[in-house]
Write a structure and sequence with these properties.
It contains 11 helices and 10 strands. It is of the alpha/beta class. The chain folds into 2 domains: 226 residues, TIM Barrel, CATH 3.20.20; 62 residues, no CATH class. Strands 1, 2, 3, 4, 7 and 10 form a 6-stranded parallel sheet that branches. Strands 5-6 form a two-stranded antiparallel sheet. The radius of gyration is 19 Å and the shape is globular.
């Protein structure tokens, strides 16, 4: 038995404007990753494992929990059939604003603007970002996205509109069909997968004031529970790095009734890990099992050896 929990999180499976990859690489890589987890670890439900940690109860050796953020449609269409075939539990952290189409996936819009721009460069926060090659467009997209994470929702929306005017992108922006709707979310719940909140509108919570954060998180939990008729006990902070949540965020999460919250700080969770700063590793599906190298080769190999 063990007192450690490793949590993995994915976003999309198929390539998107924000997360480019070769066609088919995401699905092929995810299939290999999930099969590897099934063989090399003890995959456990997230909530049950978190409760055990908090109570000081032991977990199976090499306990791993699987999570998916944002509610990309391919999490249901592609990941879920793989999970069900392997008999693996998973938790899906969903955004009500994306489910009902009232929120735009701003990170995907920024990537689309930069990668489809008619302009050959643009200025942003005092720097000139070239757009002559695909590599430059990808770099510009990442640079702008990181800078926009430091802004409030209102300031970010205004900046994206200005960015569209400067770059004059060709074609249509990413649509809501990239993400699940309430029907798809209900299907996840019906199949027994755990549902968590990823906030109401995927704003970077620490960039909003305390009252706005509390209202957002209360609303997100209420909307998910009312529409899906399942308990929503856990929160995943949007983006999830240290600057993306603060003391007000943690207080808001407690006030909203969440039992725990998850970051994207890498590392294993132990009984002493703060309940509202739990750790997860972000995984890129197209990398296949090679993506797990950073988690510790010896950890996986010892499990493989003991299971053969």
């Amino acid at each position: 038995m063990s007192s450690r929990l490793l949590v993995l999180t994915w976003h999309n499976v198929h390539p998107t404007w924000c997360f480019p990859a070769s066609p088919g690489a995401g699905a092929q890589g995810l299939a290999r990753q999930l099969a590897f987890c099934r063989r090399a670890a003890n995959v456990v439900p997230l909530e049950r494992a978190a409760h055990a940690l908090a109570a000081g109860r032991p977990l199976p050796r090499r306990a791993v929990a699987l999570t998916f953020d944002d509610g990309y449609r391919d999490s249901l269409d592609v990941a879920v059939p793989m999970l069900r075939q392997l008999g693996l539990p998973a938790t899906f952290f969903l955004v009500p604003g994306l489910l009902d189409g009232t929120t735009s996936s701003w990170w995907e819009v920024v990537a689309w603007v930069c990668r489809c721009a008619r302009a050959t460069s643009f200025e942003f926060e005092g720097a000139v970002l070239p757009l002559r090659t695909e590599a430059e467009r990808r770099r510009a997209s990442g640079t702008v996205a990181e800078l926009l994470k430091k802004r409030s929702s209102a300031a970010r929306s205004a900046a994206i509109e200005e960015l569209r005017e400067r770059c004059r992108p060709a074609g249509s922006p990413p649509g809501h069909d990239m993400f699940l709707d309430w029907t798809g979310a209900a299907e996840l719940a019906r199949m027994g997968f755990e549902i968590g909140s990823h906030s109401s509108a995927h704003d970077i919570l620490s960039r909003e004031d305390g009252a706005a954060q509390r209202a957002d998180l209360v609303r997100s939990r209420r909307d998910l529970e009312d529409n899906l008729q399942v308990p929503v006990r856990h929160l995943a902070y949007p983006n999830g790095k240290g600057a993306d949540y603060d003391d007000d965020t943690i207080a808001a999460a407690r006030d909203a009734g969440f039992e725990g919250a998850w970051t994207t700080h890498g590392g294993r969770n132990a009984p002493e890990t703060p309940t509202f700063e739990l750790r997860r590793y972000v995984v890129e599906p197209q990398r296949g099992p090679a993506a797990f190298g950073l988690l510790g080769k010896q950890w996986w190999e010892s499990r493989c050896a003991s299971s053969t």
